[in-house]
C-alpha cells in the first residue's frame, strides 16, 4: 500500500459557554478552547432554565458545526446543555436526561468498572429524578445517595456524605449541578467533564445525541413529565388524598412503596417494612409501582403550588426504535395523568 498511515481526524470539541456578564474576564473560559457568550441577567430571566433561556446562545451557533452549548444561570448553581440533533437543529436536554448523561460520563472510564474495587465516586440524586440514574450508578460501581431538590439541600447532603469519596456529583430535577462547593471550581469541573466526554465520543464518530440514545438503549428509555395541578383552595386536599388513598386500582397498577416525607415514613407494601427516611421533613409523597412507574406529589410555597412528577420507562432496543419508544412512553404518562385527573377532581 502506498499510504497505510492513519488519517488524522480533528476530534477537538467545538463548544460555546453561555455565562452571566459578571463573569467576563474570569478564568472560566481561558482554560478551555471554547468560545464564550455573555448575557445580562436583567435581560434574560433564569427562573426556568430551559430552551428559551439558552436561545440567544443557540442562535449564535445556528447553522454552524458546534458539538455543544452549555449555559449557567445567574448564580452559577444550575446548568443546561444544548446539543445538535441528527438534522443539525440544536435542542436542550431536560434535567433528567442531563443527569443521566453527566452520571454516566462521571462514573465510566475507559473500561467496565471493577466491582472488587472500593467505590471512590459518589452520586447524589434529587428524589424526583428517574430510576435510570440508580441503574447507571449501580452498574458503574458508584456510591449512591438521595437528596431533596435545591442547591442548599444538595450542598448539605454533600457535606454529610462526600468526605469518604474521592469525587462527587450531585444534581436534581431543577438543573442544579454540584461537583465542587466553590462556584468557579464547580463550573470548571463540569466543563472538564463535558469537554472530555465530547472528545471521547467524537473519537468514536458519535455526537451527544448518539450518546444520549445509547444510554436509553442500555438502561431502558425513561420518560418524565411534570404538571402543575394546582386548584385554588384545594391543593392541600389533593395532596392529602394522594397520601391517604394512593391511586392504584384506577390505573391498574400495583403499588409497591410509599415514601411520605411529611409523615417521615417509608413503607414497603410487599415486605411490610416501615422505616424513617434519611431526608428532612417536607410536603412530598412519592409512590412507586411494580411496573416501574414513579409518582411524586409536591406541595410547595406554603400550599400555593402543587406539582405532579411522573417517571416511567419502556424498552428501546436500537437507535431505529428510539423515536417510537419515546412517543410510547410519553403517551403512557399522559394517559396516567388522565386517570389521576379523576382523583384530583374528586377531592371531597
Radius of gyration based on Cα positions:
21 Å
Figure out the total of helices.
8
Q: From the structure provided, what is the oligomeric state, counting identical versus distinct chains?
A: single chain
Distance between the termini: 82 Å
H/E order of the elements?
A: EEHEEEHEHEHEEHHEHEEEEEEH
Strand content: 15-25%
Q: What ranges have pLDDT less than 50 throughout 5 or more consecutive residues?
A: none
Helix content: 25-40%
CATH topology title of the largest domain: TATA-Binding Protein
**What coarse outline follows from CA principal-axis ratios?**
globular
User: Can you identify the CATH class of the largest domain?
Assistant: Alpha Beta
Q: Name the structural class.
A: alpha+beta
The largest sheet is:
7 strands, antiparallel
Mean pLDDT: 90
CATH architectural group of the largest domain: 2-Layer Sandwich
Would you report the number of β strands?
Answer: 16
| Total domains | 3
Strand order of the largest sheet: 10-16-15-14-11-12-13
Give an overview of the whole structure:
With 348 residues, the chain is of the alpha+beta class. The protein has three domains: 9-92 and 182-217, 3-Layer(aba) Sandwich (Alpha-D-Glucose-1,6-Bisphosphate, Chain A, domain 3), CATH 3.40.120; 95-179, Alpha-D-Glucose-1,6-Bisphosphate, Chain A, domain 3; 221-345, 2-Layer Sandwich (TATA-Binding Protein). It has helices at 51-61, 95-107, 132-139, 151-161, 183-203, 208-218, 235-244, 322-345; strands at residues 15-20, 35-39, 68-72, 79-84, 90-92, 121-126, 143-147, 167-171, 177-178, 221-228, 255-260, 265-268, 274-275, 284-289, 294-300, 305-314. The chain has a seven-stranded antiparallel sheet. A five-stranded mixed sheet has the order 2-1-3-4-5, sandwiched between helices. A hairpin with a 5-residue loop joins strand 8 (167-171) and strand 9. The model has no long low-confidence stretch (mean pLDDT 90). This is Phosphoglucomutase. It comes from Cyclobacterium xiamenense.
Amino acid at each position: 500500500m502506498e499510504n497505510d498511515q492513519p488519517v488524522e481526524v480533528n476530534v477537538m470539541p467545538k463548544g460555546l459557554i453561555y455565562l452571566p456578564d459578571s463573569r467576563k474576564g474570569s478564568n472560566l473560559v481561558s482554560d478551555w478552547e471554547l468560545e464564550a457568550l455573555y448575557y445580562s441577567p436583567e435581560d434574560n430571566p433564569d427562573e426556568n432554565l430551559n430552551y428559551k433561556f439558552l436561545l440567544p446562545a443557540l442562535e449564535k451557533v445556528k447553522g454552524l458545526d458546534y458539538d455543544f452549548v452549555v449555559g449557567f444561570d445567574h448564580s452559577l448553581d444550575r446548568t443546561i446543555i444544548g446539543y445538535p440533533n441528527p438534522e443539525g437543529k440544536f435542542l436542550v436536554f431536560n434535567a433528567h436526561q442531563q443527569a443521566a448523561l453527566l452520571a454516566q460520563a462521571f462514573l465510566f472510564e475507559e473500561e467496565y468498572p471493577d466491582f472488587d474495587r472500593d467505590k471512590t465516586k459518589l452520586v447524589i440524586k434529587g428524589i424526583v429524578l428517574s430510576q435510570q440514574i440508580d441503574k447507571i450508578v449501580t452498574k458503574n460501581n458508584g456510591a449512591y445517595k438521595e437528596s431533596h431538590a435545591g442547591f442548599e439541600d444538595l450542598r448539605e447532603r454533600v457535606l454529610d456524605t462526600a468526605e469518604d469519596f474521592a469525587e462527587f456529583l450531585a444534581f436534581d430535577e431543577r438543573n442544579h449541578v454540584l461537583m465542587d462547593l466553590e462556584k468557579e471550581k464547580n463550573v470548571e469541573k463540569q466543563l472538564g467533564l463535558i469537554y472530555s466526554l465530547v472528545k471521547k465520543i467524537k473519537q468514536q464518530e458519535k455526537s451527544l445525541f448518539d450518546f444520549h440514545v445509547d444510554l436509553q438503549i442500555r438502561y431502558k428509555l425513561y420518560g418524565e413529565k411534570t404538571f402543575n395541578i394546582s386548584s385554588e383552595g384545594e391543593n392541600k386536599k389533593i395532596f392529602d388524598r394522594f397520601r391517604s388513598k394512593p391511586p392504584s386500582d384506577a390505573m391498574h397498577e400495583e403499588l409497591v412503596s410509599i415514601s411520605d416525607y411529611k409523615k417521615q415514613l417509608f413503607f414497603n407494601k410487599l415486605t411490610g417494612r416501615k422505616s424513617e427516611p434519611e431526608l428532612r421533613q417536607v410536603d412530598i409523597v412519592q409512590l412507586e409501582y411494580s411496573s416501574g412507574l414513579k409518582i411524586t406529589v409536591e406541595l410547595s410555597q406554603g400550599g400555593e403550588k402543587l406539582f405532579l412528577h411522573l417517571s416511567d420507562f419502556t424498552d428501546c432496543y436500537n437507535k431505529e426504535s428510539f423515536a417510537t419508544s419515546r412517543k410510547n412512553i410519553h403517551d403512557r404518562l399522559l394517559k396516567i395523568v388522565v386517570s389521576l385527573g379523576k382523583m384530583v377532581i374528586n377531592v371531597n
